[in-house]
Amino acid sequence: MSTPSFQFFPTRIPAVMTIEPRVFGDHRGCFLESWQRDKFAAGGVEATLVQDNLSESTQGTLRGLHYQIRQPQGKLVQVLAGEVFDVAVDLRQSSPTFGQWVGERLSWQNKRLLWIPPGFAHGFYVLSPTALFAYKCTEFYAPEQERTIAWNDPDLGIAWPLLPDLPPALSPKDRAGVAFRCAEYYP
C-alpha cells in the first residue's frame, strides 16, 4: 500500500485542518503536491478554489484578522519561504467553537498547509526575517465586503508569539480593526 499524498489533522477547532503533504526529496531538493481536489475531498476538505494569492512580508508584520461578511472565503494557506504564526477565528454563531481561535506555525521547513473554511477570520504574524505566504481562496476578493477584527482583542485573547522589542507592523486597515464584540458574524 502506498503512502498517501496528504495527511489531514483536525485542530482543536475541527473545521480547521492542518495538512501535511508527502514530500519527495533527494540531494537536488524536494517536490510535493500542495492541492489536489479529489485527495482533499477524501480527507474531508471539499472546496472549489477560484483565486490564488501571494503575500511577501518582513519580520514582525501582522496581517489580519480579515474576513468577508458576504462571499466568505475558505482559504488553503501555506508558507513558501520563512515562517509565520497563522490564526483562524470562528465567526459562525451557530458553531460550538464560535469566538474561539486556533494558531499554527507554518513554515517552508515543516511544509504544512492549513485549511480555514468559510466563516472564519484569518491573520498571520511573520516570525522569520521575511516570509512568502500563499493562499488559495474559495471566493473572489470583494473589498467592499472585507471586515477586520482587532488582532489584539482581549475577548479573543490570541497568544501571538510576538518577537521581543519588535511591535507588530500593521497596515492602517489592521490598526483600525473593530472589537470582536462589535464585529459582524456569520449565522
How many distinct helices?
Answer: 2
* Residue share in β-strands: 35-45%
How many strands appear in the DSSP assignment?
A: 13
Radius of gyration: 16 Å
CATH architectural group? Sandwich
Report how far the terminal alpha carbons are from each other.
43 Å
Helix content bin: under 10%
Which structural class should the secondary elements be placed in? mainly beta
For the structure shown, list the relevant keywords.
6-stranded antiparallel β-sheet; mainly beta; single chain; 13 strands; 5-stranded antiparallel β-sheet; about 190 residues; 2 helices; Jelly Rolls
Plain-language structure description:
The protein has 187 residues and is mainly β. It has a single domain, classed as Jelly Rolls. Helix content is 5%, strand content 41%. The protein is built from 2 helices and 13 strands. The chain has helices at 37-42, 172-175; strands at residues 6-10, 17-21, 23-26, 29-32, 51-58, 62-68, 75-81, 83-90, 101-107, 113-116, 120-126, 130-137, 146-148. The strands form 3 sheets. A 6-stranded antiparallel beta sheet has the order 1-2-10-7-12-5, with no helix packed on it. The chain has a 5-stranded antiparallel beta sheet with strand order 9-8-11-6-13, with no helix packed on it. It is globular. The N and C termini lie far apart (43 Å).
